[in-house]
Amino acid sequence: MRANPRPRKSRISPPLLGRNFSAFEALIDNALMPLSLRELILSCAQGASADGTRLRPVLQNAADQGQSLIDAALDSGLVDEDIFFAALAQRCGLELTTQVEPLEGLHNRFAPKLALRHRLYPLALSAKEATLATYNPFDLLGRQALGQELGKRIHWKLATRHQLLQWLHDGYGVGAENFDELLEGREAQADDELRQETTVLDEADEEATVMNFVNQIFRGGLKERATDIHVEPLERDLRIRYRIDGKLIEVPVPPNMRLLQQSLISRLKIMAHLDIAERRLPQDGRINLELDGEPIDVRVATIPSVNGESVALRLLTRKKFDMAALGLDADTEAKFRRLIAAPNGIILITGPTGSGKSTTLYTLLKELNTKERRIVTIEDPVENKLDGIIQIAVKPEIELTFAAGLRSILRGDPNVIMVGEMRDQETVEIAIRGALTGHLVLSTLHTNDAVGGISRLLDMGIEPFMVSSSVRAFQAQRLVRTLCPHCKEEAAVQPAQWQALNCDPIPGRFYRPVGCRHCRGTGFSGRLAIMEICLMTPALSERVNARATAAELKAQALADGMVPMRRYGLLKAAEGITTIDEVLTVTAANEG
Predict the structure, then answer these.
(1) Using one digit for the tens of pLDDT, what is the confidence trace for 108-141?
(2) Do the Cβ atoms of 424 and 460 come closer than 8 Å?
(3) Residue 30 needs a FRET pair 20 to 30 A away by CA distance; which of 164, 183, 507, 588 works?
(4) pTM above 0.90, yes or no
């Protein structure tokens, strides 16, 4: 996230900077006047803006508002960061450092507020000298503040902005700038029980600081594209983790975070309209946020543990559901469009929790959402609000269940019905009745594969002829991580690998993950659904009515043209979108 714009800076002469302003710093200050800095930035313009036509207005606007030209240029995306800082280091005579050894006790040796406010990172500290990294050697106010604060001779090195901000994040942790303010006036209690009793937020300034801390946690999660944030108390610490692309990643936090555990959790519970005094029972709530103009829905779930309350936060951004965003191949997209064009029948999306079923359902609803159709949904809970669609939230406490809501929906003249989940026999029977009376019904099931949906319905007590006559298709899916386009490298697939997969070689270009700054060094960025669609063909209907075994049903579906999920995923790997290992991780051997 961008920092708040700084006020216009005036030129500060060397004498005003105190005894720590060295001749070396004076040289840096005069190495590039604003005009020369602007020319250097323009010389590093990339792509279509290489002539500077798009970049010049950006720099002029930053100069008029007193903002940093370097920040403005990098935020615009029109300047190659590595090329610019290499040129800047050469022009200023500064060493460009790319690696850093974390200092022991960094939080206590160099104030977080000073480092984060002026975006400086200490590389070495001694009694008389300090070596600091910066990406903006022209921040005179920052150097003046350092001279007054440290009382040491300062040696400067240059770092790229991305590297320096990553070092600050890793070294100080999320929310470190506000952390010291929260601890002012507090003394660490040796007794954990006594420490847990002090949870009252009774000071306005402290509450505001806690809110800022919580906002930084949310901002960090959204910046990293996290889908979930977990606040987890440990025996002697508090852990914060983001789930990014399906993987949990621990977030660096300031030391002694446990001291503020109850303040942080109480703030989250207040925001979710939960009972802050109730710590013995699980609670569920919702937070509506707006960060940087973007509305965010947050589902909150608290769980009591032996170390205190754990809080799980599901981040639901207002997605623009679009069929193209699913990354479907032409054949799969055509199948989906034929299915939703039907006037009646049931389409079931299957898969485990966290496999993207809701996203697929909402995308299909978005395609169906026209002025000529009345669409009603019943969900638990309503994860995304769609304009033009009537959405109902399940409320078991007042006996508004899926079955009860579905009965009412059928009396309301809908064209399309979406049921969040087929949980029991009663709900399935009502949905089948709706499909047989001329309604298109969309819903989800928890099964491992598409054909397994048939067995699941039969196990619920549904008659085979009811399944074969009402269900049009079962679709199963999983999510795989997609390769980072900035760093992926082509990799050959050996014949032995195809033999191990029990699969004929697939033509295409395969890639492997490498890792770069754009993907946090993981080699992956984003996720994609791989899927299989089992259509209820006449031949498969006969098998269902005859109560064929699961293996026989699977064989018939394959004979009717179903592409197995593993095969679908390998085709995506052949397109360079994901890797073979990712596909194998989420699919079973018998799916190939």
Answers:
(1) 677 777 777 778 888 888 878 888 888 888 877 7
(2) yes
(3) 164
(4) no
Q: Which amino acid is at 247?
A: K
- The CA distance from 428 to 417, in Å, is 13
SS3 of residue 405 by DSSP: helix
Could you write out the three-class secondary structure of 425-468? Answer: HHHHHHHHHHHHCCCEEEEEECCCCCCHHHHHHHHCCCCHHHHH
Residues 525 and 516: their CA atoms lie apart, in Å, by: 10
Query: Of 299, 173, 180, which is closest to residue 240 (Cα–Cα)?
Result: 173
Report the distance separating Cα 221 and Cα 318, nearest Å.
Answer: 15
What residue has token string 């029972």?
Answer: 281
Whether the pLDDT of residue 199 is over 70: the answer is: no
Tokens representing 63 are 């100069």
At 384, is the secondary structure helix, strand, or coil? Answer: coil
**Dihedral pair phi/psi, residue 469, rounded to 5°:** -90, -15
Give the containing element (helix H, strand E) for 559.
helix 550-559
Question: What are the CA-CA distances from residue 224 to residues 243, 248, 398, 534 (Å)?
Answer: 9, 12, 39, 36
Q: What is the dihedral of CA 453, 456, 460, 463, to 10 degrees?
A: 60
Residues sharing a CB contact under 8 Å with residue 135, sequence separation 6 or more, in sequence order: 70, 85, 119, 158, 159, 160, 161, 164
Cα–Cα nearest to 292, from 67, 6, 4: 4
User: Under a CB-based contact definition with an 8 Å cutoff, are residues 311 and 262 in contact?
Assistant: no
Q: Per-residue DSSP letters for 491-548? A: -PPPHHHHHHTT-----S--EE----GGGTTSSEEEEEEEEEEEE--HHHHHHHHTT-
Mention every residue, 6+ apart, whose C-beta is less than 8 A from residue 532: 449, 450, 475, 476, 477, 562, 563, 564, 565, 568, 591
Token reading at 27: 């040289």
433-483 pLDDT tens trace: 999 999 999 999 999 899 999 999 999 999 999 999 999 999 999 999 999
